[in-house]
Structure formats: structure tokens, C-alpha cells
Design brief:
Layout (H helix, E strand, L loop, with lengths): L5 E5 L3 H11 L4 E7 L12 E8 L2 E7 L11 E6 L2 H12 L4 E2 L4 E3 L5 E6 H9 L1 H11 L7 H9 L1
Parallel strand pairs: 1-4, 5-8
Antiparallel strand pairs: 2-3, 3-4, 6-7, 7-8
Length: 157
């Protein structure tokens, strides 16, 4: 286990979520699946309690803690993409697997975890600043999934 690990609270589907992430994103794996040694408030002995996994190189633990806490937009994974094909692939994998679209490149997976599927062309435009950044930003504000061609056109003016 990594020295610093992100712990994500799930109702009861941490293993399913970890396996979905490992199938969807490169540099993602599922590690140890730890079962409860005894009954606990939201589970029984033998239920999956903790799952160690990596998402795009980031070490995580999924904790099946029950329905008390829900994911929200205060935490999200941001996945940088190189082109529209990659953007579409990740966006569609999340949204078409029980997730939902949001604004400006954000979506949620079926467990309620937020994702930002962000083409590098957008972050590069914003980093430049000035009129180019403003045009790219204004274009992004009208989108759900980011349209790479539209961002490139906005950058050019």
C-alpha cells in the first residue's frame, strides 16, 4: 500500500467500482480485496470491506462503509485526454455505465463519484491566458462533454 492513499467511501460496491475503473483507465489496477473479519453496522462477516486499487496511477482505497456518506463534487478525478477519441471513450464509458452528464466536462459515475474528462487543448488554452483563454473558457461553458474541435476553433478566434 502506498504511503498516501485516497480513501473513497462506497455504500457497498467498492469492488465493482474498482474493477470498472481498472477496465476503463490505463495505469489502473485492482489490488487486495479485504473481507470483514466480523459483522459490522452495514455488513456481515465475509463481506468486502476494503478494496485497494489504482486509478490512472493514483493509489486509492474503496471502503464499503454503508449509505451514510455520499460522493459529491468537492472531490473528483480529472483525466487529461489527448484528443476527441480519448475524451469520448472515457466520457461514454462513465455515462453509458449508469453515470450522468454534467456541465463543462464533468460527469458522475454510477456510484456518484465525479470525473472531469478534460482535453489538454482546453487546459493549455486556459494556461495561456488573455483573449485566447477567454474564448476557450466561453466555449467550454456551453458544453457538457468537451468538444475538442470547438475549443480549437475558439482558441483561433
Amino acid at each position: 500500500m502506498a504511503k498516501n492513499t485516497i480513501c473513497l467511501w462506497y455504500d457497498k460496491d467498492a469492488e465493482a467500482a474498482a474493477r470498472f475503473y481498472a477496465e476503463t483507465f490505463p495505469d489502473s489496477t485492482v489490488g487486495a480485496v479485504i473481507r470483514a473479519p466480523g459483522d459490522y453496522p452495514d455488513g456481515k462477516q465475509g463481506d468486502v470491506l476494503v478494496v485497494e486499487f489504482t486509478v490512472a496511477g493514483v493509489a486509492c482505497i474503496g471502503l464499503n462503509g454503508g449509505p451514510v456518506f455520499k460522493h459529491n463534487e468537492a472531490f473528483s478525478f480529472q483525466i487529461a485526454t489527448d484528443n476527441q477519441e480519448e475524451t469520448d471513450r472515457y466520457w461514454n464509458a462513465i455515462v453509458e455505465n449508469g453515470g450522468q452528464e454534467s456541465e463543462c466536462g464533468w460527469c458522475k459515475d454510477r456510484w456518484g463519484l465525479s470525473w472531469q474528462i478534460t482535453p489538454r487543448v482546453l487546459t493549455e488554452a486556459l494556461a495561456i491566458g488573455g483573449d485566447e483563454a477567454k474564448r476557450a473558457f466561453d466555449a467550454m461553458m456551453t458544453m457538457r462533454k468537451i468538444d475538442v474541435a470547438a475549443i480549437e476553433a475558439a482558441r483561433r478566434g
